[in-house]
């Protein structure tokens, strides 16, 4: 077993005689948690390398619990949380559930886990961003180095906050992915923040804005470019998508989010 401490914890969650807690396993073995009257679990959407379709990572998404994979997205709950403390609690619960549900399935250890950080948390956490989550991972002996925290898009006026939060996460051992609102902002992020990855909307693959300078800067800096919200085949047929450039994509055209990671048989197919 690749994660013995996690497996011991899962066995504890499966014990019918254990005291009630905020996290439990359903009949399919998925970790679930409760936020007010809503039961939360995880869904995962692959991030694929363009050209080969190889899965390099999964993004963890909070979903309401359902019999299949038809649960509703719960990320908007953070927009309506009554207080900063409650938003922090929900965010940490989601990250913990995603980590448990990801690593209990990922025996091969070939992919990373991308986890969102809600924009409300950038200012809600007073100091040492990521420390509480790192303690959870350490307690379960899960690899911090395979977690990539996705920070939300920010305005130029929030640049200082982004740098402060990013520095804290890095000091706790996490890699970072940044969401860019434009090609120009993405290019500035490559130069100034040098994250592990930058996410851009897939509409920039359809032409109208040159990607050449960004692609070259990202390749030189070792920054992954991930095009999100790929909803149709034409987005992947752009002349900017060149075989020798390491580009990545994510979206409903490629994969629907689901509770189970893609199996070896499905990958081969």
Largest sheet: 8 strands, mixed, barrel
How many helices? The count is 9
Q: Give the ordered list of helices and strands.
A: HEEEEHHEHHEHEHEHEEH
Average pLDDT score: 85
User: Which strand-content bin applies to the residues?
Assistant: 15-25%
Structural class by helix and strand composition: alpha/beta
Number of strands: 10
**Low-confidence parts:** none
Main sheet: strand order: 3-4-5-6-7-8-9-10
Helix content: 25-40%
Shape: globular
Computed over alpha carbons, the radius of gyration is 19 Å
N- and C-termini, Cα separation: 26 Å
How would you characterize this protein structure?
The chain has nine helices and ten strands. It is α/β, with parallel strands linked by helices. An eight-stranded mixed β-barrel has the order 3-4-5-6-7-8-9-10, surrounded by four helices. It starts with a helix and ends with a helix.
Brief descriptors of the model:
22% strand; 269 residues; globular; 8-stranded mixed β-barrel; 9 helices; 33% helix
How does the SSE layout of this entry go?
Blueprint: H1 4-14, E1 23-25, E2 31-35, E3 38-49, E4 55-64, H2 77-80, H3 84-103, E5 112-116, H4 119-124, H5 131-139, E6 147-151, H6 159-171, E7 175-179, H7 183-192, E8 197-201, H8 212-221, E9 224-228, E10 247-249, H9 264-268
Parallel strand pairs: 4-5, 5-6, 6-7, 7-8, 8-9, 9-10
Antiparallel strand pairs: 1-2, 2-3, 3-4, 3-10
Helix pairs in contact: 3-5, 7-8
In short:
This protein has 9 helices and 10 strands. It is of the alpha/beta class and 269 residues long.
């Amino acid at each position: 077993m690749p994660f013995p401490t996690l497996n011991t914890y899962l066995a504890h969650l499966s014990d019918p005689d254990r005291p009630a807690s905020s996290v439990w396993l359903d009949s399919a073995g998925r970790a679930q948690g409760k936020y007010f009257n809503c039961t939360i679990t995880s869904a995962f959407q692959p991030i694929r390398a363009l050209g080969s379709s190889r899965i390099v990572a999964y993004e963890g998404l909070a979903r309401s619990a359902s019999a299949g994979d038809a649960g509703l997205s719960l990320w908007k709950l953070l927009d309506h949380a009554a207080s900063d403390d409650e938003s922090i609690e929900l965010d940490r619960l989601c990250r913990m559930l995603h980590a448990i549900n990801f690593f209990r399935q990922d025996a091969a250890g070939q992919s990373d886990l991308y986890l969102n950080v809600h924009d409300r948390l950038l200012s809600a956490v007073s100091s040492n961003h990521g420390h509480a989550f790192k303690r959870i991972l350490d307690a379960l002996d899960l690899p911090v180095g395979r977690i990539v925290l996705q920070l939300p898009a920010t305005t130029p006026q929030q640049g200082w906050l982004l740098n402060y939060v990013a520095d804290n996460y890095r000091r706790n051992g996490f890699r970072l992915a940044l969401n860019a609102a434009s090609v120009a902002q993405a290019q500035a992020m490559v130069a100034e923040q040098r994250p592990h990855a930058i996410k851009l909307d897939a509409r920039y693959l359809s032409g109208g804005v040159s990607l050449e300078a960004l692609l070259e800067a990202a390749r030189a800096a070792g920054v992954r470019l991930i095009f999100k919200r790929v909803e149709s085949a034409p987005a992947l047929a752009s002349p900017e998508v060149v075989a020798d450039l390491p580009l990545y994509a994510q979206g409903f055209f490629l994969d629907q989010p689901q509770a189970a990671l893609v199996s070896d048989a499905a990958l081969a197919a």
